[in-house]
Amino acid sequence: MAFNTKNTNKMSRFQKYFCILVTIVLSLTVFQQGALAQNATASQRICGLWENTDKSLRIHIFMQKQEFKAKVVWFSDTEGKPMSYWKDKRNPDPKLRNRSILGMSILSNLTYNKKNRTWENGNVYDSKHGREWNAAASIDKNDLLKVRGYWHFKWIGKTMVFHRLK
To answer: DSSP letter string over 47-108?
Structure first.
């Protein structure tokens, strides 16, 4: 049986190009998945347990349904009473005034801005005054979390600074 050498050369050339194409596609897919994972890692850098600089408040930040939220996990302003004693008594909604401050959600709707490497368009709740403010957050080069509560404009507000516990 004789082989046609022209057809086998064409097949091997086709196979070479096919292998090159498959290699390129696989490489691009791996690169894209790595870039997506890196972005997810960058955005989730905010997640964890944080304590404010005067060591009077600890919050746990987590991601839920593509937004970042935070809950109060500990605070020291208890006047000798257990943390579970303290309620949200200054809330403008009378139905919410009996909820416990411990475990309360105080930060919501934050979304990650990849370009600026910040978390923006959120809300922060101040239980001492019963007010909700606009919120933004960033992590500086020293791994300090800066949460800014503001009223419509970022320059009208206050920043709380936290260090990471976990």
So the answer is: -EEEEETTSSEEEEEEEETTEEEEEEEEES--TTS-GGG-B-TT-SSGGGTTSBSTT-EEEE
CA atoms within 13 A on the CB side of 51: 9
Q: Find the Cα–Cα–Cα–Cα dihedral 153, 139, 49, 65, rounded to 10°.
A: 60
CA dist 108 and 110 (Å) reads 6
Looking at per-residue pLDDT, the higher value among 36 and 97 belongs to 97
Distance CA 114, CA 139 (A): 13
User: Please, which residues have CB within 8 angstroms of residue 97's CB and are 6 or more apart in sequence?
Assistant: 87, 88, 89, 90, 91
Residues composing the chain: 166
pLDDT in tens, 131-153: 999 999 999 999 999 999 999 88
Q: Say if CB 133 and CB 126 are below 8 A apart.
A: yes
| For residue 59, pLDDT beyond 50 | yes
> Is there a contact between 89 and 100 (Cβ–Cβ < 8 Å)?
no
| pLDDT confidence band for 17 (50 / 70 / 90) | low
